[in-house]
């Protein structure tokens, strides 16, 4: 969160981050905070404020609700009255309401102490708290905001943080948080009340942060409504072909706990709008601040005879006439040095690059960019802007892949990795380098022959590349692109390094190793696999410049082997610990009736061992070359040694 938030006075906050009418209310409103009692518990605060807000009836169509589903955490917020969670009882007879994160309009968090529980600190440079209790509250509100963004289609979201004698309003979007200074009830309670009432009376959902290009498809009593038709279409497609991977994924995404959405994709090339029905995301990135990428298996919608959007028709054999597609929804980094992913894929498709997605439609959603980045340059007159500009963007591709983790055997895993390398090589020749290879960016895709092959996905951080001339500098990110767990050692050692072909190839190796350790048999005990993965992929070392490569990954690249000694204690030979190198095995054959001790059957060595050993040796030689002093440096050192005589040191 460093440098990802800034604090403003209430009047500036309302002027720049409240999108409702700038005119004042025609009628004076009650000061909601005029008689705030002294609270002894947070529950007392929630009861008081929700009761006060609801009784005054100044929020038409809205209802404030407290939810305490676990007895450990209290969730509170403003809902549309017709969708507010209803009271119910637990098996023990206690009152219980379930928070509906897909419907909540305004989150409210109450804390007793405005100092020890304040998640923002004006005294620090980046306003981040240092005390443990304050960091805990910051984690809470970030988690609540993430739940809202995860379950809704949002551009931004407001949250109200109430203390004993003051409050803060928090604005979240994909670039940052913007927070008001503490608002004392005694002197600014009327202004805070006015903000809340104006917010509750906003008539345009986009002013409350909702995405106008996303329409929720609710279930009705009509058996022929679009909600029912989407479910019926999915079931018929699966019944017609149980092996249809895309149809099964789409059907499985239609769960009762998740809304169905109608999403618009604006295709910039044809300047046309397309609508798709989607259920629960197939993939969803964590955290609010960032690209917020979501991936859906999507059903294209068409106009029916009445001019209404509906599901496409099935043919006489109940086969789909329009295939399912994959929809990627992301808040891309909007910078001249980064091209839109659809443009990159279009160039790769036109160049005939294999094993990459086929783009069908793509485009920015007009008017949906992060306001906090734009306002930084108006409201902050000093310091470098660490925020990134994000623009809402949707992309439709033809292929619906499945995670690489679903490979069926070692040969299929290695084939997919080979396809990824082939795609990478062809893409570099076509003028683009990927720069963000990770376990989630290599998929399995079914070919026309029915064979599952690899597909190199997610080209949104790709950069232009000219063979023999290196990569063009990308100023948008400020540091290495990519995913920490799979970045090359060189990139982890130097966060400003410009990713080149050797770095992407090393990332591909790390992906191969990751899945091999997770799913193939080897000499790591089952209960120690997670420890190995954490030490190799997640861990880090401290340096002068912050976190750097894990010792395990650094040792593997520089030594050309993966030694498990620190994990296993090593092999003991004549009382001395020896190296215990990572080794993979074929599955042991099933025991026969003659096998009295089947556990003593020695499994055959897996062919992947030779591949990994060869690759590790290549990386070892590469790192030896890149870290070797230049000839000029060696010559200078040799000359210096000749100038000195060991006897001189004794003088």
Automatic annotation (TrEMBL):
SUPFAM superfamilies: Protein kinase-like (PK-like). It comes from the Eukaryota. Residues 283-645 form the Protein kinase domain. This is Protein kinase domain-containing protein. One of its GO terms (molecular function) is ATP binding. It comes from Lentinus tigrinus ALCF2SS1-6. InterPro entries: Kinase-like_dom_sf (IPR011009), Pkinase_fungal (IPR040976), Prot_kinase_dom (IPR000719), Tyr_kinase_AS (IPR008266).
């Amino acid at each position: 969160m460093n440098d990802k938030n800034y604090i403003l006075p209430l009047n500036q906050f309302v002027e720049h981050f409240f999108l409702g009418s700038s005119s004042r209310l025609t009628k004076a409103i009650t000061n909601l905070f005029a008689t705030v009692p002294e609270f002894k518990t947070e529950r007392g605060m929630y009861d008081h404020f929700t009761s006060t807000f609801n009784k005054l009836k100044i929020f038409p169509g809205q209802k404030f609700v407290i939810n305490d589903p676990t007895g450990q955490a209290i969730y509170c917020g403003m809902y549309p009255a017709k969708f507010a969670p209803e009271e119910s009882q637990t098996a023990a007879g206690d009152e219980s309401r379930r928070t509906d994160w897909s419907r909540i309009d305004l989150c409210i968090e109450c804390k007793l102490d405005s100092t020890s529980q304040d998640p923002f600190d004006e005294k620090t440079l980046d306003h981040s708290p240092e005390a443990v209790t304050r960091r805990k509250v910051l984690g809470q509100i970030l988690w609540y905001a993430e739940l809202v963004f995860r379950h809704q289609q949002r551009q931004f979201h407001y949250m109200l943080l109430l203390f004993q004698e003051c409050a803060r309003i928090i604005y979240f979007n994909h670039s940052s948080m913007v927070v008001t200074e503490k608002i004392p009830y005694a002197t600014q309670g009327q202004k805070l009340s006015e903000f809340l009432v104006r917010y509750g009376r906003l008539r345009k959902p986009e002013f409350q942060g909702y995405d106008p290009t996303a329409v929720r498809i609710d279930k009705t009593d009509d058996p022929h409504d679009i909600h029912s038709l989407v479910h019926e279409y999915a079931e018929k497609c699966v019944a017609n072909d149980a092996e249809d991977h895309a149809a099964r994924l789409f059907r499985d995404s239609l769960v009762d706990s998740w809304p169905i959405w109608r999403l618009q994709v604006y295709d910039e090339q044809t300047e046309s709008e397309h609508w798709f029905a989607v259920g629960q995301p197939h993939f969803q990135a964590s955290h609010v601040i960032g690209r917020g990428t979501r991936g859906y298996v999507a059903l294209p919608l068409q106009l029916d005879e009445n001019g209404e959007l509906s599901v496409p028709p099935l043919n006489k054999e109940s086969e789909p006439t329009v295939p399912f597609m994959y929809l990627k929804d992301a808040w891309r980094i909007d910078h001249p040095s980064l091209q839109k992913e659809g443009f990159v894929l279009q160039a790769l498709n036109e160049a005939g690059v294999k094993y990459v997605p086929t783009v069908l439609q793509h485009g920015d959603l007009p008017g949906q960019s992060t306001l906090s980045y734009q306002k930084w340059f108006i409201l902050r007159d000093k310091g470098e802007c660490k925020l990134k500009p994000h623009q809402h963007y949707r992309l439709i591709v033809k292929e619906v892949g499945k995670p690489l983790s679903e490979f069926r055997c070692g040969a299929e895993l290695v084939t997919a990795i080979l396809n990824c390398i082939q795609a990478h090589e062809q893409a570099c020749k076509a003028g683009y380098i990927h720069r963000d290879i990770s376990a989630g960016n290599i998929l399995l895709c079914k070919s026309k022959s029915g064979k599952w092959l690899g597909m190199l996905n997610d080209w949104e951080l790709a950069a232009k590349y000219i063979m023999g001339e290196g990569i063009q500098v990308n100023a948008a990110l400020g540091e290495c692109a990519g995913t920490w767990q799979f970045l090359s050692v060189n990139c982890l050692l130097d966060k400003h390094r410009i990713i080149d072909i050797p770095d992407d190839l090393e990332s591909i190796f790390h992906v191969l190793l990751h899945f091999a350790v997770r799913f193939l048999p080897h000499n790591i005990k089952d209960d120690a696999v997670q420890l190995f993965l954490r030490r190799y992929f997640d861990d880090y070392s401290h340096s002068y410049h912050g976190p750097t490569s894990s010792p395990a990954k650094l040792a593997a690249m520089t030594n050309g082997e993966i030694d498990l000694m620190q994990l296993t204690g090593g092999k003991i030979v004549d009382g001395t610990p020896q190296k215990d190198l990572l080794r993979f095995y074929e599955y042991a054959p099933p025991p026969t009736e003659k096998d009295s001790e089947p556990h003593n059957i020695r499994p055959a060595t897996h062919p992947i061992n030779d591949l990994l050993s060869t690759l590790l040796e290549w990386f070892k030689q590469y790192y030896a070359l890149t870290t070797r002093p230049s000839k000029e440096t060696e010559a200078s050192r040799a000359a210096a040694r000749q100038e000195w005589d060991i006897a001189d040191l004794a003088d």
